[in-house]
Amino acid sequence: MKDENKTKQQLINELRTLRLRLEQCEAEKPRSEGWGCSELIGPATGGYGGELIEANLRLKREIEDRKRAEIELKRIKEYLENVIENSADAIGIVDRHGKVILWNRRAAEIYGYDQEELAGKTAFVLYEDRGELERMLKELRKNQFVREFEILMKKRDGSVVPMDLSLSLLKDDLGKTIGSVCVARDLSVLKRNEMALKAARDELSRYSKNLERQVRERTLEITGILEYTPSVIYIKDKYGRYSLVNSRFEELFNIEGEHVFGKTDRDLFPPEIADRLRASDIETLSKRRPCQIEEAVARDDGLHTYLSVKFPLYDEQGQPTSVCGISTDITELKKVQDKLRLLSASIMNGQEKERTAIARELHDELGQVLTALRMDSAWLFKRLQGLDATGAERAHAMCRLVDKTIDDVRNIAHRLRPGVLDDLGLIAALEWFAADFEKRTEIVCVFRHLNVQKVDNIVATAAYRIVQEALTNVARHALASRVDVSLKRKGKLLLLNIVDNGVGFEVGKIDESEALGIAGMRERANLAGGALEIRSRLGKGVRMQCKLPV
User: Fold this and answer.
1) What integer is the mean pLDDT of 135-163?
2) pTM reported for the whole predicted model
């Protein structure tokens, strides 16, 4: 057999045999013959000497390899000991009787025992349930290992914790079991997290069920609203195609919902009406805010007016994708409003005529009587001078009283219906009224006008009465020191602006009794075909603008 195929033990045995033969040879050969050890060893090519040298060399190599293996084994052992000692899991090694041989630092932290405290004890004292322990050991004996076995274990303080164990049997060179190694992981945090997760899932389940219930309830409510509301409700995409209509829409336009979906206003209404509807949809989408408009739609019994509230609907990215409209038929209401407007206009026209008549009566009839009294009082004063001093003084006082009464009557007549409004027009009437207001109230009143030609009597009367009411409110409530009135023409509109520097007010919180004057001004503006806008804040005065068609 070649040397490289021999075991280490065989080589050692051969070396021992050679040494014995060498010693035997040395004892048998006489020294006189001159034999020495060197001759016995002889050259490397023959005799036992060569085999001995080769055996020595092989032995040296074996020893060096063994030393290197021992050094590597020591390094690996230190590495493994460091890994075991610093492992995040508890690691323990026991002998075949269950006594602890190794106990790392994490095991001491989890269980509360140092390795010295477990001396003479078995690891079985750490198990809470003997039945679970027997099941685990049975599985270990059967499979030679156990993976991720959950079991309850006791700490030193008596508390019980759930652990996850993995065990493997340790065997010697002959395959005999000499112990086992156990890797344990504390499941306390995991169990708590699992319980918290379960609680969260249960809560989520309850929340989902509650949300589903609310969705069903809201769906029923919305369905009821869509079904029973007298208003027309619809949704159109950004291209004007219908995606939802309620039963009222179907009823009014005599068309079923499935025949509406995907169609546009052009498919359902005359072109001129469809174009107006589409224009308002586009405006709502472009402005991205709700709008309220009046829309006229032809029906079998004629043209109906609808008050439509339109607002955009958005996707998850905040982009408008469709427009929803809620339209209420206000045809009858418009007729009533028209009648009320005609009635109101008739009343106001009657008031203006009555004011004009009263002003004329005051100016003509009462003015003439007062003038006659003034002339008689003056005549009486002259006659009594030098004859009766007391009577003359009384006559003179009568003259002053009549003069004052004439001025009051003249002012009343002007406020009722200034003749300058009828004779010279709106600009002259406002100039006179602004000057008279400043004289009576000592509030600076500035009137400006630009590009205003002659306007018709209805617009002139409305503008004059609005200024009259506004300045009266300034004198009563504003505590202002200045008010500016401006009148200018812009295109086909006459813009009337009244601005004061008074205390201001909250427009939405004004008392109804105080709002009568504002309501009157709005009504006059509406009757003239215009609109009145009022803006104010506390401490910031009032800005009023009236737009009237020329």
Assistant:
1) 89
2) 0.42
